[in-house]
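User: Thanks for the earlier help. One more: Methyltransferase FkbM domain-containing protein. Can you show the sequence and predicted structure together?

Assistant: Of course, both are below.
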Amino acid sequence: MQNATYLGNGLILARTRWDGHVVVPGYNVDVAIGIVRDGIHEPWTTRLVQELLRPGETYVNVGANFGYFTCLGARIVGSGGKVVSIEANPHVFSILMKTILWAGIVDRVTAYNRAAYLHSGAEFDFTFDYQYIGGGHIRHDVEASAVQTGTPFWSPEALPHLLEADGRWNPSRGLLNFFKVQSLALDDITAGMTADLIHCDVEQAEPFVLVGARNLISRSPRCKIIFEWSGYAYDHGNEEYRTAVRDMWDLLVKENFVVRYLKPMLHDNGAIEVSAPLSFEELLTSPHGDYVALRKGQDPWG
């Protein structure tokens, strides 16, 4: 039965529908709500991971957040499997560590507080809002002159940053906080490894992550990939981002992958639904959501 326990210091230990345990902060209102209230986060993606991953396999979770999918993957692969868990935000990573311990999966999880990227050793400026901490991202050019709001949490003092001039709350407004983080390439930390499932949810930086894992993908014959995508990001991205998207697509084509859109729904019997294989042109106009890439011949929907 799903339940939640207060741990102190604003932290909640939530038990999931699939009998795992995840630590989340009470101030968070994007990722934590589903985990605490419903015992599940992104049910369609949860089901997809459950369908694609097997005991004894290796799961790479990039953008691990508080550890929901890290815990799910670790429970599936078991003590004979491996999980690589990567989270850039140090404020989130400190909670991810608690999830790994409370979930009893420290024996199979290797966690990195780094930003997965094309190459290792770069330094990035990130921005995030504690309340919507799942949406932390590299600071865009338009945010370069922004200043930290001073108070990190919703409070009477924070209201001037959250309300319009007429006193109306605008849920799209946030409280800016910043941090710096070093990058790593998956290829640099997975030498000699193969991956059975790579799962990326890093606020549209997925092309950089996957291109930085080209060798891992190439030497992993059973590799499957789940990645977040939005055609909007391509339309509004700079040339570096668009180049990374094209390089990602070329890599997937070279490695004989097909890409499908995971529809954000579950049927009454719990089944998921995916689109037909997408062309590059179709991908560029596709909506925000999760996508799955599978090699031809290993595609259960093919």
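User: Great, one quick takeaway?

Assistant: The chain has a mean pLDDT of 94.
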